[in-house]
Every structure is written in structure tokens, then in C-alpha cells.
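Input for the complex:
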Amino acid sequence: MKIITVSREFGSGGRELGKRLSDILGFDYYDREIITAIAKNSSLDESFVDYALEQQPVQVFTTNLRCSFATAPAVHSIQPSLLLEQKKVIDSIAAKGRDCVIVGRNADVLLQDYEPFNIFVCADMESRIERCLSRASGDESRQRRDIVRNIRRIDKVRARTRELISGSDWGDRGQYHLTVNTSGWDIRELAPAVADFAGKWFGRAK
Amino acid sequence: MKIITVSREFGSGGRELGKRLSDILGFDYYDREIITAIAKNSSLDESFVDYALEQQPVQVFTTNLRCSFATAPAVHSIQPSLLLEQKKVIDSIAAKGRDCVIVGRNADVLLQDYEPFNIFVCADMESRIERCLSRASGDESRQRRDIVRNIRRIDKVRARTRELISGSDWGDRGQYHLTVNTSGWDIRELAPAVADFAGKWFGRAK
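Predicted:
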């Protein structure tokens, strides 16, 4: 079984790259499907699960006085169980034994026993803003501020979650087989190059 | 003109990868040739130039009391002019207008106006030690200690030199198009994958 994991900076095009890789290689693809499964198994609303997993993780018993009391305590108390459920969902994907691409969710760490091919996707800030802007509508200068804030916030959450799960640095080059900078690329042109690369990794002499 | 630059952690196989890339693509190859040219232009011994450029760079006027007084002051006082000469040699390589691969020497920064394809090569510590050991002979346990010390020292010099030249972090993913982890690869199998990748970059729609 061949597993490709795609970790990525927010707005770098990692999700699109992952989808295209799965199309080119004929692999199963997992991204939103993981959130859907966590929500179903936990009897929670999908958008709540998504929201909860996008908040800065705190260690249990840590008091964060600056949080919004309306929602944050509920999120923080449920986050550990959602992360556990996420692990179960990802384990069950691997247990199917089918070739697949998994985007995000620290699947590279959770599935390390399966020896996945691990990709990290990054891009310069301007490319990331442009990518996010192309999906948005309305007042551009306001959007730009919001997007930059969102990029910084989500990157921070991803880094912190990874640290909690694996004790290792998010994006550290030593943890991935390939780190791809998508700045200046059309992902449609980049994807076949990455697919060839991954194919050669799986086919190499060991 | 197509330029590929290869920056690398010591012992990661970056030099071999660069050489193989040049063979596959039919590009000129520059590595030791740069040291030879600096030595010639400066009327200095090649091994001295090599040694001097492998010492921790210090900013002029910094006093390093722990240095060996026999050699270090000479090295430190000549290092800035060697780095300047190195820049001239690398500029003259680019001025030839021929496709080439340049290993090390911060060529990615020095030649950024030529829009090179920039690769960073890394590997886990054990792979790097193994690679260095395969080139050495004698008592293995002593060699291993020396190799680890050398890896740490040279990586530190490369990081510091880059910081002085460009003000940027050595190995930072955002500065390279592709970061390749050679652990688990035979460079002979990896090189064609990287060559294809670079070829697609040069051939992409802009």
C-alpha cells in the first residue's frame, strides 16, 4: 500500500496539489472526508468539528483567560477527544489497505509505521494571499488584512497541534521527503512533477 | 540560460546530486572549480582558500579570543576578500550564458537576478554519518565522533556565511523551489526525479 501525506502552509495550494496527485495516480483522496467522519462518529455538527480543530490547542487544565467565554471552553474541553477521534479515523483509512493521499491532520506522524511518502507544501506570503484572494469576493484591501491574519493564525495552530501530537517542529525539512515551494507554479503543472517524484520513491530499490 | 543551484547540509549527498543533475541535463558543473578559480585569481594556495572559506566567518573587527593564534587571524582577515572574489567568480560563470549546476557558495542568492532553480538537499544525521563513513578509512568509532563534530561545524559555518551574505536563514524552505531529503534514496535513483522536476520548472508556462 502506498500512502502520500501532504502537510501545508495555509494558502500554499497543498490541498489542490493533493487532489491532483490522487487523480494522476489513481489513489483515494482524504481531506474533508476526515472531518465528516469525525463529526459522524462524535455525533457533532461538521462545522463545529472543523471550527474546534482550527483553534489553538491548549493542554488540558491550562486556563486561557483571554478566550471568549461563549465558545472557547467548550472547544478546548472537546479538542483532545476530537484529536483522538481523528487518529482513529486516520488509522481506519490506512487499515483499508488502499493507496491514498491524505491532506493535513498530521497523517505523516500518525501513519509513520506505514512508511508514507511525506510532502510539505509552502509558498511565499504574496502567493498565498493571491491564492486566498482568488477564492474570495468583496472589498480587496479588507480581505487582504483578514487573509494575512488568517494565514498567520492557522499556521500557528498547525504548528502547535503538530508539536502536541509529535513533539516535533511543523515544516522542519528533515521530517518530509520533499518540500515543495508552489510560488511561481501553476499547480496543474506542478502536480505531475510531484507525482513522478513520488512514483520513483515508491519504485526505488530498497 | 538555465541555472540550477544546490545548497546542502554537509554529508547529505548534495554534491553527488548536483554532479548527476549536470550529467543528466548536459549542463556545465561548478563546485571545486570555484575554489580553484578563487585561488588562482588571489594567488593563494587552493587548499588554503578551501580551509579559509570553511572557517566560521566573523564580522570584521570582532575579536575571537578563543581562536588559534597561529592561523586564525590570517584566515579571518582574508575571508572577506575571498568571499568577494568568490562572488566575482560566480558572476563570471553566469556571464558565460551557459546552462549550469552550481553547488554551494550561496549561488542562489548571488545569482538571483538570473532566476535559478534552487534546490536544498538535506538528510537525517544517521544517513549523513553513513555517507561520510563510506568515504573514510580506519577506526570507525573515532571516525564517527569526528564526522558528527565536522557535520555540526560545517553546517554552522554555512548557516553563518549565508546570514552574512544574504541576511536570510540557511535551509529555510521558503528560499528554495525544492527541498529534497536524501535519506533512504540512492542518489543515482533520486537524480533523474529531481532532473525531471527542474526540467518542468524551466518549461512551465509563466
